[in-house]
Design a protein that fits this description.
The protein is α/β, with parallel strands linked by helices. The chain has 10 helices and 9 strands.
Length: 302
Amino acid sequence: MTGPKRTDRPADGRHAEGTAFTIITGLSGAGRSEAAKCLEDLGYFVVDNLPPSLLPKMAELAARPGGPGGRVAIVVDARGGVFFGELSKALEDLEHVGIPYRIVYLEASEEQLVNRYEATRHRHPLAPADRVVEGIRKERLMMEGLRGEADLIIDTSALGPHELRDRLRDAFADAPAEQGLQVSLLSFGFKYGSPRDADIVLDVRFLPNPHWVDELRPLPGTDERVRTYVRGQQTYREFLRRLRALLGFMVPGFVAEGKSYLTVAVGCTGGRHRSVVVVEDLATFFRDKGLAATIEHRDLDK
């Protein structure tokens, strides 16, 4: 699907006047229902499996006195046989009448999706003759265009319901309008796999590794002794200087394009030392610029 350009919409639809739409979509079994429940708990008016052609009508109803107002979430999925041309036209109609929207896309690895279907004994909506894996692959291909239009992509492969709710609460927490862009910073270890939902992935395995210093090996990257070691390297100081300059150049462009969320993942070998220090320093960098920044150290305790 080729969606309409959204460069003229507010940088964050949550803070636009009037109605704004959050569209929840993604792969079956990836957590759309849990996401919908979470937003409902946050005060959103949630409509499940609304045909795309009814989006403009829903916007009209939401804007009426006594309607749900500006916090509306719509779940769009393959159960209703989503026609991407129809959805694209509906989004263009929202643009035309000045209603901002954002797309949240949930996905997971093929292995995790198969396990979830086997655990629940549910049938995949696109699976021929109950062959779940074929349905997953067909749906992933079908949804690829919509994934490319998403404002926020969340990989739920390693997330339970509580972790998914925490991630959504962080993303949808009320913040001052001028912040515009919410930044999620993730440290991880390449030995445990790269995150699928990052906008930017940085590999810091070239930095001197505290793992090879006996007294530092058992300590986490949040320990001051590890921080002092990593930050004391000339290579690290030069890297961070150049990285800050690059991100300082990129962030205004993301904001100008109407991006509401930015996920930056930083990886080292095990995700315990170097990547943790970099993420902590980047959080300070973004917060000094007045941007909301959350931190997750995925592999710190492994």
